[in-house]
Amino acid sequence: MGVSQTPGVQCAAATSPSPSGGRSRRAGGVQKKVAQTLRTAQAAYPHQRVRLFVQDEGRAGLKPVLMRVWAKVGQRPIAVQHRGFQWLYVYVFVEPVTGTSDFLILPTVSTAVMQVALAAFNDAVNPTGRDIIVLLLDGAGWHTSPQLTVPPTMLLVTFPPYTPELSPAEPLVGRVKRPLANRTFTTLDDVQDVLSHECQRLMASPSEVQSLTAFPWIRHALNSC
């Protein structure tokens, strides 16, 4: 998929109200780590724009996704289920400070597929190679494998283990999967169609994406540059 080309920022703060997420005792350590990486990258490439993105994957498939819904008092809502065990993965890339996002729907997670995802993402948001992308992601094996070839204009930074609450991409994964909730699908193609439509909608709505992902610690890290 392509990306909504919203201009990025160079160590600047978001102006929209920040969401309540991203609160953790370890947020301060990540904030310092990211801020230092941004400063180091900007010092190494003083004439290039440095942008901070966050990445994550979400699994979706034929197994039903159940979510709470409103119902009249005394009535229990019913969701028809047909369980299946075929999956695909949505690869999410987001620049929290601007709401710029890019998504790929791929069949699995692996080092080889991650390399494809990084290359496609880089082509979408940095086609000229003039920007330096700092990409924050978790420590999954396919993210940290020595066999993973990272584009030369990209730096990978990992979250501490077991801190999904720190990732601004987490709420965006949940939002992408919301249209699947309480519905039954018979083929992965049907699931992919729904996901593709929601991904396109979010890419065209940077203000909504920003409201979900501009965590306070991200803004503080950018402010400290």
The total count of strands amounts to 5
Give the end-to-end Cα distance, rounded to a whole number of Å.
Answer: 31 Å
Taken from the alpha-carbon principal axes, the silhouette is globular
Name the strands of the widest sheet in spatial order: 3-2-1-4-5
β-sheet strand percentage:
15-25%
Largest sheet geometry: 5 strands, mixed
Count of individual helical segments = 7
Average pLDDT, to the nearest integer? 86
The helical percent reads 25-40%
Computed over alpha carbons, the radius of gyration is 18 Å
Q: What is the chain-wise order of helices and strands?
A: HEEEHEHEHHHH
Label the structural class. alpha/beta
Low-confidence stretches: 1-20
Report on this structure.
- Helix content is 35%, strand content 18%.
- With 225 residues, the chain is α/β, with parallel strands linked by helices.
- It has a 5-stranded mixed sheet with strand order 3-2-1-4-5, sandwiched between helices.
- A hairpin with a 4-residue loop joins strand 2 and strand 3 (100-106).
